[in-house]
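May I ask you for just one protein sequence along with its backbone structure tokens in two labelled lines?

_____
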Amino acid sequence: MSAVRFLFDEDFNGRIVRGFRRRRPNAGSRTARELGLTSADDPVVLDRAASDERLLVSHDRRTMSVAARQRIRQRLPMFGVILVRQDYPIAAAIDDLVLISEVTTAEEWLDVVAFLPL
């Protein structure tokens, strides 16, 4: 079983990313910007997340959920998507992501589209 590794979408709140990285510095998280995915379309970001076996975390609840579900219907690999409301409290989002990284495995997120709070 593999550990959960996150790919944070380009628009994702940087304070949440920094807080998560402070609490889980060895979790291997990456941002879309770090991977050269600035301004990339949702299917491209999902493709990269799948090829890197990363769980995508995004605020883009409208279009990313559509792209993720389309990927599932096409039977393309998808290591899951977690969608977080923009107004979700920062501390709660960090706590939830830390918990996900500590108590779940990457395999549990295959083809899953989830919303925080769970």
